[in-house]
Amino acid sequence: MRPVLWWTLIVSLVKLSADDLKTHWVKDRDLGVLCACGLCLFKAKSLLEWFVILAVILSLALWGRVRQSMGSGDLSVILTMGLLMDLSEFLMALQGAALLALAGFDITKKALQSEVPFVPYLCGGMLIVYLIRLRLIFS
Questions:
Q1: Per-residue pLDDT, 114
Q2: What integer is the mean pLDDT of 42-65?
Q3: 7 vs 96: CA distance, rounded Å
């Protein structure tokens, strides 16, 4: 059962990334599948880890809504990351996503004020963390 859930999660993340790149919009149905897979596969954490992850997600949600700079797709992917990873992996994936986005800005020479689909960068950050976890990179 778990491999089916992992493959559903991966396909869902790829579809969300493609939709976000193409239309700057992701469908609620796809977000529901993503969050359901995250809930089924969640990783047990200590109370402190849950508190810090929840604080990061809530502060990102508040900041994103106030500045109107973060969509619901971004927050759903971040929530799923919080369900699947422990605290150090979660923070490393967020850092990796931010660095990938900055590299994307540098490569494409876009202005920092332009609208950016962030879901693909979040998926890239998750991929980096999982490759590190499997010791395929930085071993």
A1: 64
A2: 84
A3: 22
One-letter amino acid of 44: A
**What is the reported pLDDT for 124?**
92
Give dist(CA 73, CA 25) in Å, integer: 8
Contacts 24+ apart (CB under 8 A), 123-126: 123/13, 123/14, 123/16, 123/17, 123/77, 124/96, 124/97, 124/100, 125/81, 125/92, 125/93, 125/94, 125/95, 125/96, 125/97, 125/98, 125/100, 126/13, 126/81, 126/84, 126/85, 126/93
Region of residue 114 (phi > 0: left; psi between -120 and 50: alpha; otherwise: beta): beta
Are the CB atoms for 117 and 21 separated by under 8 Å? yes
Check residue 138 and report its DSSP letter. Answer: -
Instruction: Tell me which residue of 26, 28, 30, 45 sits closest to 83, measured CA to CA.
Output: 45
